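Section 5.1 Outputs to date
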Amino acid sequence: MKSVLFCSTLAFVIGALLSDMPPFDWRAALIVGAIVAVTVAVVIVVAVLTPFIALQAGATLLGTAVAIGSIALVTGIVAAVAAGLYFGHQGDIKHQEQVQRITGVTNQLDIYFHPSPDDPNRAADFQCTLVIYEEGDLASPMPEITTKKLEIKAKDATDFYDRVKEQMRVWFTRQVLADSDGRPRRVTVYMRPYPGEGVFDRLRSLAENNGMRKCVVTRVDGPWISAVEE
């Protein structure tokens, strides 16, 4: 009875302490704790049934079973807490790394052009795709990045740049994680297929003169590559 009361009290104290602990992995704690508890119980039972540990004179089978269960329970709880704290800390590190990765991507806007049906090395007239990277639920164990593509097919140059400017305006207006750190927005223009002379300069002007946020525009003389896959 004393052993049972001791284990119950210990479990209650540990449960109270866990409420103020750092990130805790309950799944790892339960698995490791159960494995350790069962292993300890089996080892003690085997030892009792062999000459390594002899039953004390007058000891009952029930008393021995309770003692073995108590030792296994306490050992399992200690192992569970250790495993939960360790794997919880590892999960917290991975979470922070993912948030930093998201922060470094969601302030980026990509622009790439569509190939012409006559020449895949040249861009079709007044067509492009804007790629926006959006963060998922940051409170989840492993937040994700969503890639959103906005396709533009315009009737002429004026319509084309007006549409691009409007989509940029919406993007510059929306808050992203990097804004809180004072990082500039980044617009990357991929020039393969080649859209023609003057296109990059016009797009750079639209981005840099957005009137809301500082923006760094980069030219890449190659095909589009997702920032998430880098």
